[in-house]
Amino acid sequence: MPYPVSRTGDELVMELIGDPETGVAAPRLVAHRPVDRAEVADLWLQARALVLGFARAGVAHGDLSAYNVLVHRRRLVAIDVPQAVDLVANPMGLELLHRDCTNLATWFRRKGMAEADPDDLFAAALGVLPWG
User: Which one of 6, 17, 51, 63 is most buried, by most CB atoms within 10 A?
Assistant: First the structure.
């Protein structure tokens, strides 16, 4: 995830994920064109790791999809994280976690990753919850 660089009043400046020389931001996953199946498989493993990392922390991103993930130097970076929800405190927490799993898995299935199963990912996420 990008780190905060500075804060002024109610504005928060975040790290640029992209090319600092040109100021061009890394593309969103939805706009990224993987070069081959191996890259898609690697990105899927990273997407799984993102979901499981959030779950281990007891949160769901809440809107994790190919629109809120950047691809920078073949690595995934989640953005729009401040909307993350506590899986216990938020009554829709598990529903939002499942939606995150479905959104990402659906994108990867469209790219040919048959193993990108949203229900398997959700089950894996439930298995790493800090109270599980």
Answer: 51
> In the chain, where are the structural domains located?
27-127
Please say if 117 is a catalytic residue.
no
Please give the model's pTM, rounded to 2 decimal places. 0.88
Of the candidates 10, 19, 36, 80, the residue annotated as catalytic is 80
Per-residue pLDDT at 59? 97
Q: Which residues contact 124 (CB under 8 A, 6 or more apart)?
A: 48, 51, 52
Structure tokens at 12: 């928060």
CATH architecture of 27-127: Orthogonal Bundle (1.10)
DSSP 76-97: EEE--GGG-EETTTSTTHHHHH
Averaged pLDDT, 112-120? 97
Query: Is 63 a known active-site residue?
Result: yes
Backbone angles phi, psi at 85, to 5 degrees: -120, 145
CA distance 8 to 106: 38
Q: Pairing state of beta strands 59-60 and 85-86?
A: antiparallel
d(CA 90, CA 49): 22
